[in-house]
Amino acid sequence: MKTKEEWIRTNQRMVDVVVGNQPDRIPYYMNATEALGARISGLTIGEMLTSGKKLAKASIETCDFLGSDIVVPVAPGGGYMAPFEAIAFAKANGKGHLVEYKDYDTPFIHEGKICETEEDIEKLEIPDHRKVEPWPTLLEAYKYIEEMSGPRTMFSPSLTWSNVQLLRGSRAYIDVVKNPDLLLKLCDKIYESQMDFYKAFVDAVGKPFVLFNCQYAFNKHMLSFEDAWKFEGQYVARFCKETQLPLMVHNCGFEPYWDEMVDKMREEGVFIVGVNGSHPLDLDYWVEFNKKYPDLLIAGASVYVNNEIVSGTPEDVKNRVKENIVKLGHTNKLMILPTCSAMWGSSMINLMAAKEAVEEYGYYPLKV
Ligand SMILES: [Zn+2]
User: Fold this and answer.
1) How far is the CA of 252 from the centre of ligand 1 (A)?
2) Minimal CA–CA distance to 329: which of 1, 17, 8, 10?
3) Residue 70 in contact with residue 14, Cβ under 8 Å?
4) Cis peptide, bond prior to residue 76, ω within 30 of zero
5) Are 183 and 168 in contact (CB under 8 A)?
6) Is the peptide bond before 134 cis (omega within 30 degrees of 0)?
7) How far is the CA of 130 from the centre of ligand 1 (A)?
8) What digits encode the pLDDT tens for the residues 156-195?
9) How many angstroms does the Cα of residue 163 sit away from the middle of ligand 1?
10) Which CATH number fits domain 4-361: 3.40.190.290, 3.40.50.880, 3.20.20.210, 3.40.50.150?
């Protein structure tokens, strides 16, 4: 197991690429979610969530095993907080029975049940993140992770669409057209809840270095850009201004509005520092993206090697990572984050091949 000092040193790689310094090696992070965390630690999700210390230990063990440079809790996996926020919403509104825990996977609520009616939205209570589980356990886990692996750098809100989808379900898409004011009311409440989470986080862990938001509305196959901005973007922009924090955006949809979203965020005065996602898969898009936005960290987006991890060989995985380093490594703005969430059944040899490729080709000065 890496020592705290070693974690601080590898964690610095990510800080370096965000602020524009050249690290010793391209930073690497394998996003282990609940499934892989359970597989590697040997604990069920229920066991992990019995204490912050247990969750922190399972997370560090998992990230260490996978060779990640940073530690992120395996539950909620990476920065995908919405399922846990939905649990807190369910509990705060007397609907805890809607939560379905799984031994080796992300717990989920029944989509669209918490805010099934207009009245549900009107009366929706905001969970107190200092008191309503799973947040107190989570906040304790963050503290332990920081104690054992150095200062935590990211705060992950879930503004707003990931929450909208869980609370309101597919009815939200009808609301966009037929009842936008009602949907805005729900977004307001989600915002308020995220701010409560942020304040509880700062009290427990300290001020983060960056906001890492799972931002799913900005996909062409889902919403128009105007609606994505109306129901998600404007809330993210407001959150960034209120907290005075830079923004990194995660969006693993198939047709993201990357350029338009970045331009609009900047226009609104948001300090956006990076993007993380899976599409487009065409590396040349990202080469052009880097030319257009040389200050932005590209984390994972272009180096999505999910297909190779799921159905390729270790050689395929290594080649895809290498290809990314060849095309984008020289920018000092690349972080290898090979998959949005590594699944329970992923081939361990393939997962390890991504790390091996970074070790082989990722040190500066680059040899490829
Ligand atoms: Zn994702």
Assistant:
1) 4
2) 17
3) yes
4) yes
5) yes
6) yes
7) 27
8) 999 999 999 999 999 999 999 999 999 999 999 999 999 9
9) 14
10) 3.20.20.210
